[in-house]
Specification:
single chain; 195 residues; alpha/beta; Rossmann fold; six-stranded mixed sheet; 37% helix
Length: 195
């Protein structure tokens, strides 16, 4: 029997989240709430007792992962596949600013980039699925610190849902999902938001 347990964590709240700015590959500092969420997420990951902590290279996810790996005394691994969606020309903009700039923006299309020079939903779903399959192949227990887009894509893939089901989950900052995959069948063990 092949069993893999994955704890997927979305990074704490940032100023861009609070301001409604689309920040994919850029950096943005934590809010006061986000600073509090760091400790809560580190504690949650430590209780999960992972054998490895994986992280996006972006600071807002990496900071939690680094502290959690230290607290759990396990290896920390960074993987580019855990980066947030590339918003292209919409990077750093709010919805009103996107409209004012006249940018084409489409979250729903699978194949078309979300914005000019950006990434498509198919691309983020493919890299998230590839990473999730890597973990399932490894077996054991893994914590993953990432972003909302990758969180959604990994979750539906691990649970065997349709890619359109990514919109069935509201992934808030500080959210954590514990999924167990047994012989290819994924089951949600727990879903909660910290802080």
């Amino acid at each position: 029997m092949n069993v893999t347990e994955v704890l997927i964590v979305r990074h704490p709240e940032t100023e861009a989240n609070l301001d409604g700015r689309l920040v994919g590959r850029g950096e943005t500092p934590y809010t006061e709430r986000g600073v509090r969420q760091v400790d809560l997420l580190v504690a949650r990951i430590a209780v999960f007792e992972p054998q490895t902590v994986w992280s996006s290279p972006l600071e807002r996810a990496y900071r939690v992962a680094e502290s959690a790996a230290g607290a759990a005394a396990v290896p920390l691994k960074v993987d580019e596949r855990l980066l947030e969606l590339d918003f292209g020309q919409a990077e750093g903009l709010t919805w009103p600013e996107i409209e004012e700039a006249g940018l084409a923006f489409d979250y729903r299309s699978v194949e078309t980039p979300v914005a000019p020079d950006g990434e498509s939903r198919a691309a983020i779903e493919a890299r998230a699925a590839e990473f999730a399959d890597l973990l399932v192949g490894l077996g054991g227990r893994h914590a993953v610190c990432t972003h909302g887009g990758v969180f959604r894509a990994m979750l539906v893939h691990l649970l065997g849902l349709s890619t359109s089901d990514i919109w069935a989950f509201h992934i808030r900052n500080g959210a954590a999902a514990h999924v167990t995959v047994t012989d290819g069948h994924g089951m949600m063990e727990e879903f909660c938001v910290h802080g």
